[in-house]
Structures are given as C-alpha cells and as structure tokens.
Amino acid sequence: MTLNVAGLAVVAAFYLIILGTSIWASRLSKKRVGDGILLAGRNINLLVGICTLTATWVGGGFILGIAEATYNPTLGAVWALVPLPYALTFFSGGFFFAKPMRENKYVTMLDPFQQKYGNLLASALIFPALIADVLWVARTLVSVGATMSVILDISYVYSIIIASVVAIVYTILGGFYSVAYTEVIQLILIFISLWLCVPFALTNPHSLDISLTAYNQIFQAPWVGTVEPHEAGKWFDNFMVLALGGLAYQALYQRILSASSYTQAQVICFASSAFCLVLGIPPILIGAVAASTDWNSTSYGLPTPYECGEASSIFPITLRYLTPTFVSFIGIGAVTAAVMSSMNSALLSSASMFSSNVYKNIIRKQASDREMQWVIRISVVVVGLTGTGLTFLDNSVLVFWLVGSDMSFTIMFPQLVCILFFKVSNGYGASLGFLVGITLRILSGEPLFGLPPVICYGCQLNDEGTLTQFFPFRTAIMITSLLSVLLFSWLAAFLFNQGLLSEKWDVFKVKPKENVYEDRKAGGNNTEAPVSVQLLESTV
Fold first, then answer.
1. In this structure, is residue 273 part of a structural domain?
2. Residue 468, SS3?
3. Which DSSP category does 358 fall into?
4. What are the mean pLDDT values of the chain's consecutive 10-residue runs (540 residues total)?
5. Which of 148, 337, 404, 505 is least enclosed, having the fewest CB within 10 Å?
6. Which of 82, 73, 80, 84 is nearest to 223 (CA)?
7. Helix (H/G/I), strand (E/B), else coil: 216
C-alpha cells in the first residue's frame, strides 16, 4: 500500500481552509454572549442559513449511504430513500414546527419540555437526543474513513482520527458562527465536486449504459431495485423514520432559531428541501454506475465489491477505479466537506442541549458566559470522542444512519409533537409515554448493539440467519408512544382535577390555569400561573 501524497495534499489544503474560516468566524462569536454563541445572535444571514441547514443534512452518510443502497443488489435505488424524506422533513419543519419554536424564542429543542415539565423530566429526555447525535457523529466519520482509506490508501483508523480532531477543533473555536460560515464553503464544494464526478463515472469504458441495467440483470440485479410485498412494511417504516425523525433533531432547530424571523426560518427550510433533492441525484448515479460495471475488466478485479463486503465503500471505490485520478481527488473533497458539515452540527447540537438545559438551568444557574463557553467546548470534545469510538463497532453507513434517526423518531418525535400542539399533555403523560416508547424499542431488538428482538412484528430470518422485522414496528412504537402521552396526560389531569388524587401528590402541577387564578383570589399559595403555561398556550 502506497500513500497517495497528492491526494493527501488536497485533503490537507481543504482542512486548512476550513480551520482558517473557523478562526475568522470565531472573531464574530467573541462579540456575542448567550444566544450569540449557540444561535449567532438570532440574526443569521438568509443565504448562510440555507447553506448551513442543507450542508448539515447532506453529510457523508447522505452521499455514501445513497450510493451503497443503490449499488447493493439486495436493495437498489428504491431503497435509497433519503432525498425525498429529507425534503419532507424540511417542509414539515417550515410549515408546522418553525412558528411555535421561533416565536417563543427557545434556545434549544428541550426548552419547552423544561419550561412545562421541569428539570427532572427534561434531563431524562436529553439522553435519546444525545444518543442520536453521537450516532450521527459516528456515521459521518465512517464515511470519511471509508473514502480516504480507499482513495488515499490511508489507514481507516487514522482517517477517522484526523477528521474527528479537525471537526472538534474548529467547532469549539467559534460555536455556531464557525459551523455556519464553514458550511457555506462546504456546501459549495459538495455541490461542485459531486456533479463534476458524475460525467466521468457515466462515461467510463468498463460500465454499461445505466439505462440498460436499470431493469435488466446483467452483472448483478437491476440497480433500480424492487420492494417485494412482504418488504412493503419495512420500506414504509424506513421512509417514516427518515422523514419524521429529523424533526426531533436539535440541529434543525438550531438553524430555525438562528433566523431573524419566522418567515426567514420558513424560507431556509423550503430552499434546503430543494437542494437536498438535487444533491441526492449524483450518489444514485454513482451507485448505478457501480452496479453496471464489469469489475473483472477493471484493476479491482473479482470478486466484486459487494462480494468482498465493501458495498458501504462503493462511492470511493467507483471513483478510484472508474474515473481519472484527479476526479477521485475531487470526490474526496465532496465527502470530506460533507462529513465536516454534518459532524460539526451534531457536536454543537449536543453541546447546546447539555450546556443550556442541564448545566445552566440545573447544575449552575449562576454560570458566567465564559464558564458556559468552556462547558460547550468540553461537551463538544466528549461527544466527538464518543462518536469516534463507536465507528469501530460497524462500518455500514446505513446502519448508523437508520439507528440514529430511529432514536429521534420513536422517542423524541412524539414527545415534541405533544408538547407543541396538544395542550392536554403534562409531565405524567410524558413520563409514561417515554417509558412505553423506550421499552418497546429495546424489546424490538437492535442488531448494531447485539440486541435480539423479544417482541417480533412479523419477524423473518434474513440471509445472515438473524431475525428481521418486516412490519413497520418503529412507526407503530412512535404512534403508541404519542397516544400514551396523550392518554396518561388526560387521565392524570382527570384524577387530580376531580379530587380522586390529593393535590400534594401533584408534582407536575396539572391544575388548570383558571383554578390557579381562583386560588390566588382566595389567598391561596399559588399566586400566578406558571410561565411555562403562558408560553405553551401561545403556541397552540
């Protein structure tokens, strides 16, 4: 194995550009305190907002995951779901979630929970959100490790460590300013690089016309793929996880809340959805080219990448063996930029929730701005190192992608919907809904962590001999959790309001607002309605 010096120089130059931009952006963050660190003073430029939201979702997992699914003969392009669900994520965020989040001037996604339910329950809800972010970090690093190890002949481990260090360093330099402004450069590089690679891949002499292999089995199964009747539930489940799971990511609301107005937040969401669709086309085409290639005629030889267990690295493999060297270097730039743009967003997302909702509101309410800066930096480092460690558990981008979105979809999404749009929700319902959701999800099993399913929703044995859920069980868990929140909230309110349970046991204070005012007039202890009630009523 010979180190590719020229390619390494390209990557080093890119890293230096990103670090230089982050240092410049850090000077802007020093002029701000509080919201300025995490939300850029709530006055982010419209173009910067569009770029940072798009680049956050169009990460290394996006590029390599789509190419992997398209090339994989057991899946195909029909399973490369991501562009359309992501577009729906942004449209839903703009239409339904931007207004209540932006008008109440929350700092993080957990603020409404903390204001209405209190610190204890909000602290519990931070864990699934943090796990989702850590898995996000892992999947982005897996993609850059796969790309550099294939094209540059750099050790997979070293590739991941270098990318992780760079992302951590420039994220802690300037907070959201560094993330946002570097993502402008990253999105431009992603867009140009991806589309420049496509013509060279499509015209290489070792591959057939992808229109011939789309529906005909030549070198392998048609790359368009199929959804068998028994797989329809699994397909639908994956679609729903990707479309709605993103609505429970702090990274989305960090961009919505950084906008100067609700209208600007909507424009950012809608424009980003269009960019996601456009940027989803090149990885599909690259995967289709790989599925249309006679690998025996290339220097890669036989067995094929799929037979060698390298389907997750098909994007860099295609660039290396089917395009000129300089084109593969351009592809490195696309993947590296995508990885940096997603990883820094996940790092800052986790740091925002921990520093604002746990440290500032619970541990040290009197913490100074300088102290908070250090808490944010330490949080970034911890999340970054944890995500880096997970990369050695699995090398499939698709696995980390789905599991990370899974946590947001089944646990956090129903909680967020209930607190923003259903006034009946309260701490009792949220607690039991959380327990129901997480219990059902654990009992459903998870191959990444070696958990076999205890509850089987139409389980069948796959080719590896393990049980696979073909029923849309994640969607069923999400709906069950949501209904549990509403049902137990109503039941708790009924029991306390009807006097069936003593008020001294009412730790979440579910007594209606008008009764609180009556107590105040009567000289009771409750002198005013909780601020959280006033805030939440204005959102629904």
1. yes
2. strand
3. I
4. 70 78 66 58 84 86 90 93 91 92 88 90 85 81 78 79 82 70 82 91 95 94 92 91 90 88 92 93 96 94 90 90 88 78 81 87 84 87 87 62 77 94 94 93 79 79 70 94 96 90 83 47 40 35
5. 505
6. 73
7. coil
- CATH number of the domain bearing residue 330: 1.20.1730.10
CA 498 to chain centre: 43
Domain boundaries, position 187: 5-413
Q: Count of domains in the chain?
A: 1
Mapped to the 3 state alphabet, what secondary structure does 226-251 carry? Answer: CCCHHHHHHHHHHHHHHHHHHHHCHH
Phi, psi of 150 (to 5 degrees): -80, -45
- Residue 314 inside a domain? The answer is yes
Cβ-contact 269, 53 below 8 angstroms: yes
pTM for the full predicted model: 0.83
Size (the chain), residues: 540
Q: Is residue 535 assigned to a domain?
A: no
- Burial string for 147-185 (b: 16+ CB within 10 Å, else e) reads bbbbbbebebeebbebbbebbbbbbbbbbbbbbbbbbbb
User: Tokens standing for 130?
Assistant: 């943090």
488 vs 482: CA distance, rounded Å:
10
